[in-house]
Amino acid sequence: MHTPETIVALIKIVLMLGGLMTAAAYLVLVERWIAAWVQDRQGPNRVGIPLTKIRLFGLGQPLADGLKFIFKEDYTPAQVDKGLYTLAPIIILTAALAIFAVIPFGSVLPMISVPGISQPIELIVAPRLDVGLVYVFALSSIAVYGVILGGWASNNKYSFLGGLRSSAQLIAYEIPLGLGILGVVLMSGTLRLDKIITDQATSGVWNVALQPLGLLVFGVASFAEAARLPFDLPEAEQELVGGYHTEYAGMRLLLFLIAEFLHMVTAAFLLVILYFGGWHLWGLTGSGDIVTWPVAILRIVVLTAKVLAMILFFMMVRWSWPRFRFDQLMSLAWTVMLPLGVVNLLLMAVLTEYRSHLGGGWWAFAIISWVVSIGACVVAGLMAPLSVDNRPKPHVHPWDAETSLGD
User: Closest Cα partner for 123 from 344, 298, 380?
Assistant: First the structure.
């Protein structure tokens, strides 16, 4: 027999999946519009209602793209490992969707008079999960296996190299990603994302003001984990054709593409929740757990607006920045982001421990944090310059080079 709690959970799952799939489809259209705007050309603006001349600014484009993928031939190359070839996109999409079980898409709804429901409904699929951030990290790690399996199972050198690049990149940037999060966990004292939002709303101070270095480290690592430009080395078209999904087409390729887009949406949610107050906005949303219907809706709108703004930032960066070389990518992770992440963790540990002794409260905390963050970035820039002189050196004879290597 279905209890009211089970029905509520099923409704939340359906809403989350429907919202994510619709958002992924139409955010692709938005990204194509932004790309067209950045490149000073017209984007998709013709597809509207079929069999009519109504174009609706191209809003029918995602539907046309989806139908194209569905009706494409489901071709499987002869050389692939068929089991792993099919399993890889399923793994990566399942992991990308399951992460949203612990990510809140609002605050709470007011009490409703339904038998069996005795407390406000929390707008999160798996409420009160005390290991929410650990769960997010675990599933994001599983997604790496989908990429590696896709590259291996394709039995293609470009796919294999793309899989290797991706695994190296994702593993390298998971450490700074974790260090960035640990600073927030130290301050909030919880691994629950909804509690982290409540902590910021209660104090009225967002973590972006208190942990600028953590935001920098986590933001850069999020770009790399989402494999977005300038970190899209796993599928660099000029070098690897399509990377790990070179041999994929049709629905299986669609699963990979949706998962990649969901990674960006996940990164946007985490950035907003961890550093920009989540649903909190001064003077509008309040901070308590008891809310009215207008406040509950307002919190959903505020959170959604912040996430959309962050996604637009991701898109603008993609179409504005050139791609790193692979050695620059790895150097940035191990010689810049990792030390900065350690500095941020130590700084947050010390400031959190002695916060009560700081005169000036949050202002003193923020000033010290900003000064140390700027100093750490300057030192990191001086210690590990990313510019490398790759010009040929004609005065060096090849025999001299071999002699120097032998020495």
Answer: 298
